[in-house]
Design brief:
Elements: E1 2-11, H1 15-25, E2 31-34, E3 51-55, H2 56-64, H3 68-71, E4 76-78, E5 80-85, E6 91-95, E7 104-108, H4 109-122, E8 126-129, E9 134-140, E10 143-148, E11 151-160, H5 167-172, E12 176-192, E13 199-205, E14 208-218, E15 221-231, H6 232-240, H7 243-258, E16 261-277, E17 281-282, E18 285-287, E19 293-294, H8 302-323, H9 330-359, H10 363-378, H11 380-390
Parallel strand pairs: 1-2, 1-11, 2-8, 5-13, 11-18
Antiparallel strand pairs: 3-7, 4-7, 5-6, 9-10, 10-11, 12-15, 12-16, 13-14, 14-15, 16-19, 17-18
The structure holds flavin-adenine dinucleotide.
């Protein structure tokens, strides 16, 4: 078995693990990444067809670690967001005039990962080991030892970035709260007849939200992505429909806003669940991104919150580095937990309650929602607070 030393070991080289590696490498730490996939695929055949809505706050951090310049080439700005309750006239409109910036950016997950890996492959301080599953984790002499079938990595700090079904969480027996929504989101990428004008829409239907996200045009075609949540049976049947029939159903929802569906490029189903680890550290290991928390995608904030975890970690490491203290001790891990847990707890509650609120169909709640939406639409103070939250500014 090959033995290696790194300042930081990261388990999981997905959207969060890869960004964590880049940010900590900027501070001069040596990094190892253990990833279970055999390889990362560049080109057209990456499996995840989703897009991510990058908030303005995340963009600022990506700029700080010199990633945004390259990423921005693939990101379509969002200038307006329209939130619509059912098909009614209850509408909330957000624009970007107040802060004189965009509200966010839509980018394909595949492009995001390609950009991160192009940077990683150029960094001498980052070593990636693919096709690795963890066999054992042990704390020894103030170091953490991580064993796979082929390697033993000895580090000051271990970072779990291995997604919502984290193997590290199981090995370390870190407890969690979990909720299964018994719903699936279908993600459909397609071209359409009318320009999206950089507007994102979110419709709140009884069975779940439907978001239309403006994407970069491809071959001069208008392209968008739909994320539509429904009960399992309905989502499964949508997924099985031939494109001709799916287009008719989608047209009913989107025609008024971005015209007709011309071509469906991809469709994919995602079962929805949410979880929150009871703590974000254990045994010289900290949890970042979906290994720590996952949410209903109603607010499109899961990856953005993972990026906030990374930003917090970056700031703590910078502080420790300036003081000349080794990272990964108990105080370090607790500080990371204190800086990240409560934000995740709030988002867990907000996304869960929001989903619940918009599902209700009693006359009283429908009326209350409609009054609430009208009050928010007319009240700039509340509207600004909501848009600041969505943009990652508070
Ligand atoms: C339908 C949908 C739409 C979404 N839209 C948005 C959005 O618009 N904006 C937003 O901010 N968020 C969004 N999210 C959330 C976002 O996709 C996730 O938060 C993000 O992908 C999490 O990234 P991650 O790297 O933490 O986890 P993952 O993407 O799950 O990556 C985990 C990585 O770890 C590897 N791994 C797993 N186990 C092991 C192991 N034992 N050993 C080694 N490696 C391992 C995996 O192969 C993978 O590479 C959405 C989610 C869904 C379901």
């Amino acid at each position: 078995m090959k033995e290696l030393y790194s300042n930081v070991n990261i388990v999981g080289g997905g959207l969060i693990g890869a960004a964590t590696a880049i940010s900590l490498c900027k501070l001069g730490y040596s990094i190892t990444i253990l990833e279970k996939n055999p390889t990362y695929k560049f080109g057209n055949n990456h499996l995840d067809k989703r897009t991510v809505a990058i908030s303005e706050g995340t963009k600022l951090f990506l700029s700080k670690i010199n990633v945004w310049g390259e990423m921005s080439k693939y990101a379509e700005p969002i200038n307006r967001i329209k939130i619509i309750d059912r098909e009614s006239t209850n509408t909330l409109n957000f624009d970007n005039e107040r802060r004189n910036s965009n509200l966010g950016y839509i980018i394909k997950n595949k492009k995001l990962l390609d950009v991160l890996y192009r940077i990683i492959l150029d960094e001498k301080k980052i070593k990636i080991f693919n096709n690795n599953l963890i066999n054992r984790i042990q704390k020894n002499d103030q170091k953490i030892h991580i064993e796979t079938q082929r390697h033993k990595i000895i580090s000051d700090l271990n970072i779990a970035a291995d997604g919502k079904n984290s193997q590290i969480r199981e090995i370390l027996k870190t407890n969690l709260y979990k909720k299964n929504y018994n719903k699936k989101a279908i993600v459909i990428n397609f071209s359409h007849s009318i320009n999206h004008e950089n507007t994102a829409y979110e419709f709140f239907y009884k069975d779940g939200p439907l978001a239309i996200l403006p994407m970069k045009s491809e071959n001069n075609k208008n392209v968008s992505s739909i994320v539509w949540t429904n009960n399992n049976d309905y989502s499964n049947s949508l997924n099985k429909l031939p494109d001709e029939r799916l287009r008719i159903i989608l047209n009913e929802k989107i025609e008024k806003y971005i015209g007709n569906v011309l071509k469906i490029y991809s469709k994919q189903l995602f079962p929805l669940s949410a979880h929150l680890n009871v703590k974000f550290y254990d045994n010289k290991t900290i949890y970042v991104g979906d290994s720590a928390h996952s949410f209903h995608p109603i607010a499109g904030q899961g990856w953005n919150l993972g990026m906030k975890d990374i930003e917090n970690l970056y700031e703590i490491c910078l502080h420790y580095k300036r003081l000349g203290i080794e990272i990964g001790n108990d105080n370090f891990c607790k500080k990371y937990h204190n800086n990240t847990f409560y934000r995740a707890y709030s988002l867990y509650q907000v996304t869960d309650k929001l989903d619940n609120l918009f599902q209700q169909n009693s006359h009283i709640l429908n009326f209350a929602r409609s009054v609430g939406i009208n009050i928010i639409q007319k009240n700039n103070y509340i509207k600004n607070a909501i848009s600041d939250f969505a943009m990652g500014f508070n």
